[in-house]
């Protein structure tokens, strides 16, 4: 199977070629500006010292400071981190926000750490990367298995090192530490804005449409929440413990409560339960939202996918060969790509950073409307560009992902050209 990095670079190359940009643009963007590998020693509760490995990849800063999350995951590799950082450069460019892209990772299973160990690891990681981050340089945020509490420890650690508070150094912080309440659910909300716009454009409306969601962490839960709030029917959800299916619609708030309290989605008291966490991928729903991690829809299982519309909540859930197969299906409409669909998190991060730089805070509703407006605009810009690219290249199977990459690359190219880099 192609790695996530190969996949990312393949789509990047393809989009650069599609619009005839100079080949050196690919040479420039296929490698990150800087990679920092760090070791993080943590004294564990049992007295033993464990040394963790972490990274911060700064991919490109033509459009502004590097920006992207930090992932804690037992299987994360430097290659995956590079791919994710590249994806952030493109996502931030497409979103129209003034950021380059970066991504951090620590190879660890956070489920196996106590709160004290997790705090020590988070603080140790910040000490290790502190020379290269800051509100004007590189602004981390959460990603898989990291959250506002971890951001609070991190902003505190950096503030101690600098000797003054640096609110704008991290985003998705708790509201009392210069965060914004919308950030908690912004990625899920943004995914549903994309789903709603797509369903209205291509499926004749959003209300009453059935939705299956794979992954019930921050993104999956809040996508489910906003989808049902806006009138769609969530019929399948899953986490690593299994899946829940209910054709009459899942009570999302109850599912969130049970999952957060017991750490198991299958403790949801109603509907049918299944052991296989992949079940929502194959549910007969109008819309599928993969909201866990990369490479879950593959050539091996794509034939079982029935949804007409895929909205990528996770980063890189669909492999390229699987995506090709999906588009060859007659009733398949589109995969709304990750860099467009899940940008709500980083767009909200941008709004939070703007607030932090001026110590002026909007209320929740005003923030939410600003976020939704940016997401709607980006969806339509991408959908329009896709139409245009398809008519310009009738001989090529241009995907919506290609269109998103084209728009993203164009903006970065323009900035790099004006700066005299290429
Ligand atoms: N981790 C999120 C992403 O992949 C958010 C990044 C951010 O807010 O900086 O887009």
How do the helices and strands line up, and which of them pair or pack?
Layout: H1 4-18, H2 23-29, E1 34-43, E2 49-60, E3 66-73, H3 78-95, E4 101-107, H4 115-129, E5 138-142, H5 148-162, H6 186-202, E6 210-214, H7 218-229, E7 233-239, E8 242-245, H8 252-262, E9 272-274, H9 279-282, E10 287-290, E11 309-311, H10 320-328, E12 334-336, H11 338-341, H12 344-358, H13 364-392, H14 400-419
Parallel strand pairs: 3-4, 3-5, 6-7, 6-10, 10-11, 11-12
Antiparallel strand pairs: 1-2, 2-4, 7-8, 8-9
Helix pairs in contact: 1-2, 1-3, 1-14, 3-14, 4-5, 6-7, 6-12, 6-13, 7-8, 12-13, 13-14
Bound molecules: glutamic acid.
Glutamic acid binds next to strand 3 and helix 12.
Number of domains: 2
Strand order of the largest sheet: 9-8-7-6-10-11-12
Looking at the overall shape, the CATH architecture of the largest domain is 3-Layer(aba) Sandwich
- Note poorly predicted spans: none
The ligands bound in this entry are:
glutamic acid
Number of helix segments? 14
Q: Tell me about the largest β-sheet.
A: 7 strands, mixed
């Amino acid at each position: 199977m192609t790695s996530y990095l190969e996949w990312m670079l393949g789509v990047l190359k393809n989009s650069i070629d599609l619009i005839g940009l100079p080949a050196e643009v690919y040479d420039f963007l296929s490698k990150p500006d800087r990679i920092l590998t760090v070791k993080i020693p943590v004294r564990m509760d049992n007295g033993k010292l464990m040394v963790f490995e972490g990274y911060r990849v700064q991919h490109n800063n033509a459009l502004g400071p590097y920006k992207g999350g930090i992932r804690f995951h037992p299987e994360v590799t430097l290659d995956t981190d590079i791919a994710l950082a590249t994806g952030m450069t493109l996502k931030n460019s497409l979103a129209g926000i003034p950021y380059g892209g970066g991504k951090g990772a620590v190879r660890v299973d956070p489920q196996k750490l106590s709160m004290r160990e997790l705090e020590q690891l988070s603080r140790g990681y910040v000490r290790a990367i502190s020379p290269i981050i800051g509100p004007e340089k590189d602004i981390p945020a959460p990603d898989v298995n990291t959250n506002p509490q971890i951001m609070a420890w991190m902003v505190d650690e950096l503030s101690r090192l600098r000797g003054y508070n640096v609110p704008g150094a991290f985003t998705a912080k708790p509201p009392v530490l210069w965060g914004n309440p919308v950030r908690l659910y912004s990625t899920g909300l943004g995914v549903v804005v994309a789903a709603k716009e797509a369903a209205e454009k291509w499926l004749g409306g959003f209300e009453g449409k059935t939705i299956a969601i794979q992954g019930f962490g921050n993104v999956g839960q809040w996508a489910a929440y906003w989808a049902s709030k806006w009138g769609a029917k969530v019929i399948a959800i899953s986490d690593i413990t299994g899946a829940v299916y209910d054709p009459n619609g899942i009570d999302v708030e109850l599912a969130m409560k049970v999952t957060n309290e017991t750490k198991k989605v299958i403790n949801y008291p109603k509907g049918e339960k299944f052991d296989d966490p992949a079940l929502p991928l194959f549910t007969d729903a109008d819309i599928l939202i993969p909201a866990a991690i990369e490479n879950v829809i593959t050539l091996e299982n794509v034939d079982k996918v029935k949804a007409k519309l895929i909205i990528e909540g996770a980063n890189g859930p669909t492999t390229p060969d699987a995506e090709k197969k999906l588009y060859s299906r007659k009733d398949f409409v589109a995969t709304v790509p990750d860099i467009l669909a899940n940008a709500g998190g980083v767009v909200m991060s941008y709004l939070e950073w703007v607030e932090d730089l001026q110590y002026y805070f909007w209320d929740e509703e005003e923030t939410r409307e600003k976020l939704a407006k940016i997401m709607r605009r980006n969806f339509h810009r991408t959908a329009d560009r896709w139409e245009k690219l398809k008519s310009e290249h009738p001989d090529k199977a241009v995907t919506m992902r290609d269109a998103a990459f084209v728009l993203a690359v164009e903006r970065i190219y323009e900035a790099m050209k004006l700066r005299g880099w290429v």
